[in-house]
Amino acid sequence: MTIPNIDNHDNLPETNSAVTPTHNDITRVREFLVDLQARICQALEAQERDGSSNDKPATFVPDDWERPEGGGGRSCVLAGGEVIEKAGVMFSHIHVHNLPASATARHPDIAGRKAQAMGVSLVVHPKNPNVPTSHANVRLFVAEAEGEEPIWWFGGGFDLTPFYPVLADCVHWHQVCHDLCAPFGDSVYPDF
After folding, report:
1. Is the dihedral of CA 159, 165, 166, 168 positive or negative?
2. pLDDT, tens digit, 9 for 90 and up, residues 78-126
3. Is-catalytic flag, 174?
4. d(CA 149, CA 22)
5. Catalytic residue among 135, 172, 174, 178
6. Are 117 and 103 in contact (CB under 8 A)?
7. Which class in CATH covers the domain with range 23-161?
């Protein structure tokens, strides 16, 4: 089943955070991430369609979910393809009323705040063992307290797991990573 009406996000659980000075920005990031998930799914389905000898290539199956504590998301899974053995592309937007100690140990300034996190993550397992497995995620984290400015940041990461490494591919991958980090300072790529 192809993802239904990708431009219509009405089926996803809505954010329930109070309006803050960054509410419009949070909404825009959410819209961007939902669209990013859809574009990634479309691109992977195109790869599957173009590489398949089957007249009904594998497509993503979406599953909208809600989290009882607040928030929800959409999990999209493609399985059994001729090009992609299995892929998952997930969007989530969750809310937490009390951050656990593990979350505040390195960031004591967010202790006692409610928080929300949203992001897109993916794992792709190609059928061809010469093509690396890939993983990526991007997240926005916002910690809020009544009467105080929100504390927020973006985070994420990406990696490849080659089963049969090719030096030229490794060099290319690291050069792309370096080039993505370069606008943020010379130390960003070596640090991360």
Report:
1. positive
2. 999 999 999 999 999 999 988 888 888 888 889 889 999 999 999 999 9
3. no
4. 9
5. 135
6. no
7. alpha beta
